[in-house]
Amino acid sequence: MSSSSSSNSRILVGDNEIISQNSCTSSFTGLTGKYSINMVFNGAADYKVNKRELRLHPENFIFLNNYTNYSSRIDSAIPVNALSVFFDPRFVQDFEYSRKSGAVLLDNPFDYKYENPVFVESIYPLQGALKDNLLNLAGLINRNTTNQLLLNDCLHDCLLNYYSIYNTEVVNRTASLKFLSHVTKSEILRRLSMAKDYIISNYNKNIRLDDIAQMACLSINHLLRTFKQAYQQSPHQFLTTFRLQQAKYYLRNTDYPVSEIVDMVGFECPSSFIRLFRSSFNVTPGQYR
């Protein structure tokens, strides 16, 4: 680990861990052993997960499994405020156990076989109750809270609300794929998640459909057909929607001129951006700001 940061806070909650940092330059390598939720409040952070290179932006988070070896890096002209929550596998196992039926909980409390759940590692939208949970955790860290009961409650709620997002983004999307085999559905959704993550990580660049298909190890036609089934949008429509959402973030949280935001999020023409923004949100960028 190396860093050049204005602040770096670390709180242990049992065997779980919460790290908040406000850094221009930092790097963490060889991370593994715990499940993790990672987010940034501003700027961006780069992650290398196996051979995948992901970029994390505000309004999103990355979830990683406990066995995954990965590294993260921040390199920014302005400090990036980032938050990572690390869950000990036993904490997640116990959470899984608590979600079982009452018969299992009462009749077989000591015979239950604990196993580490495996999640689809992906970039997810940060929204709803989970966003509130993580903002609350960041506030508690900034106030140097040491109340273990309160922090444990927050971590439990983070997992609970992550499961809700996972159900929407993975379980329901897997079910929407038109294949008979659940194994096939799960594998296709995993590959589509890699395509989606590639789009999100490179949303402000000129992305080619060939590159997306190659990242997902799918033919272009297969990608187009299954992506639409899972996300109810084509890859191009998904990219446009994400660019518009990022534009909303910049309009809401920065003072950048609209013309500069247009370039930052990857649109080439200000007039087409304004037209798309107005048709999507029923308001112009200036009115939204």
From TrEMBL:
Residue stretches making up the HTH araC/xylS-type domain: 193-289
Alphabetized UniProt keyword annotations: DNA-binding, Transcription, Transcription regulation
Name of one Pfam family that matches: HTH_18
Alphabetical list of InterPro entries matching this protein: Homeodomain-like_sf, HTH_AraC, Tscrpt_reg_AraC-type_HTH
Presence of keyword Ubl conjugation: no
Superkingdom of origin: Bacteria
Protein name, entry field: AraC family transcriptional regulator
Species: Pedobacter panaciterrae
